[in-house]
């Protein structure tokens, strides 16, 4: 059988890093409140030359180098983003042009913070169906452009950044210890649109809009949904939760990560936490955390990793991958 194997990871952050104390100079907040309630210490903010496409292209270049692959070998780019450079064309095609790829399949996926999981399943399915052999799956966001900088309940939580993986077709056996994507499960429940949304758009206001969130309610749903989808996806892969080497979750709030790990009986040492360094980067946060843990040597070949995320929609999902 064909499986999709992660052969390289990469990430990119804007040059400008902003601390909680710096934010407190212009917003009615404090380092103590942000650290205690979220675990966030820094976020990176794009300058006018840095966009979702340029950050995504930088992350993709790093992932290609790690995979030892050339841009011309890529035949699919799936970009997860809620903050495209323009309404259209897709930022995936902008990344394609920046990478100098003349012809490949390229499109964006919109599932907000769960976008990378959605993009991963699309790429995994196309690879296993034999439609493409080598894909770039990217999460890239510039949420700083859709934040209301006068709303302290949201503007302190988000940051900009990008993460990417190279996913390649490999012949594999059906065993659960085989390398590659072993199972993905996705969900959406549009009844909760109004708990986390942007109050603008091309077909409504004709403007870009600003992010709005009922944080406490999102928090409550996040812990329940993330624990449930993780259990469901491990079962789909035919594995028990204690087989997990590393949980690589969406980085929204350190308290959500703690609560989810506790609910699953998972040791906190097995959870990759990077929210302190780059805050919530929406669709970029899972591949950013993955790349961090691969490059610092925590995640090694053969490890069983679980990626999971939950965000606006609501959307949520998980993927079990033998790295
Ligand atoms: O990526 C998509 C998924 N998103 C998430 O997962 C976010 C989920 N939600 C959360 O992470 C948390 O709910 C927040 C971090 C957003 C908020 O934490 P909380 O413990 O739920 O606080 P809260 O919203 O209940 O607010 C508590 C207090 C309020 O004051 P009062 O009404 O108790 O006097 C807020 O006005 O904290 C106040 N507050 C702040 N204080 C200082 C809210 N934001 C701030 C701030 N600085 N930045």
Notes on the protein architecture:
With 323 residues, this protein is of the alpha/beta class. It has 2 domains: 2-171, Thiolase/Chalcone synthase (Peroxisomal Thiolase, Chain A, domain 1, 3-Layer(aba) Sandwich), CATH 3.40.47; 180-322, Thiolase/Chalcone synthase (Peroxisomal Thiolase, Chain A, domain 1, 3-Layer(aba) Sandwich). The chain has 10 helices and 13 strands. The strands form 4 sheets. It has a 5-stranded mixed β-sheet, with helices on both faces. Helix 7 crosses helix 8 (254-264). The longest helix has 22 residues, at 215-236. The protein is globular. The model has no long low-confidence stretch (mean pLDDT 97). Bound molecules: oxa(dethia)-CoA. Residues 29, 33, 37-38, 113, 152-153, 156-157, 215-216, 218-219, 222, 252-253, 256, 280, 311 line the site of oxa(dethia)-CoA.
